[in-house]
Amino acid sequence: MIAAAGGFAVITAVGVWLFLLRGVPSSERGAVRATAEPVGLVASRMVAVGSGSVAVRAKDPVGSLWARRSPKDAALHARRKGLERRYRQAGANHQFLDLMVGGDVVGALNELKKQALAGDPAAINLYGDFTYWNCFIHRSPAQLDSYAATQIQESRSLPAADAEWFRDAFVEDIAFDKAVVAACSEAVNVDQAFDMVDERAKQGDGASLRLASMTASKMAERQQLLRAAAVAERRRGLISTLRQAQSRSTARGRRSGSPTR
User: Fold this and answer.
1) At 161, which helix (H) or strand (E)?
2) Beta carbons within 8 Å of 12's beta carbon, 6+ residues apart
3) Of these four, 118, 147, 208, 213, which has the most CB atoms within 10 Å of its CB?
4) 3-state secondary structure of 94
5) 62: number of Cβ within 10 Å
């Protein structure tokens, strides 16, 4: 029994240590995302990790150009990367991402909602997607606190400086998740967001059809919406391919001097 318990402690410590070194995917809600990604240092051999009462001075090995980010910088960097990966392809602009990363979640959502209400298709789908994953399905502040307490408790198996770094980075991440929950209550009308998505879905928008399928109450309706989304996306892909081919043909015609239709 003692050996088994000791083995479990070692496994836990190694797991959290790898977490510190590599980070975890931003798609996993509630986890600190890539908080230990290194940043190159060119001039300084001494980098401050943290500030105030939790400041830790970490000296670089001689000849090394790498040092761990401060907890706050790591959280901000990971937050930006996660948001860009999640929302850039959906049409999110720099303003939305900058406001979110900076912590002005209410401002970001109010601006996004304004664009959606003006009829911007990309904004409607982005607003609907954000609303579904962060406001309709989300963890409560109490659940976030419970999760944080568990993770911090497990981090105590690490060396003191690393455990402190982990806690500071994790607190930054949990604070942002709580800010998102609060912003949902203040700036988001869930029914309004889903109604706008449904209207776009009725017009055959593939992304809207997929979003609408996630809120459908019946399985048959959900499957029907998914099939319609697949058809719409194939049609959109075909149209895009034809337009590209036509553009290439026009460009070749101009280079050769012959007219094209």
Assistant:
1) helix 160-187
2) 154, 157
3) 208
4) helix
5) 6
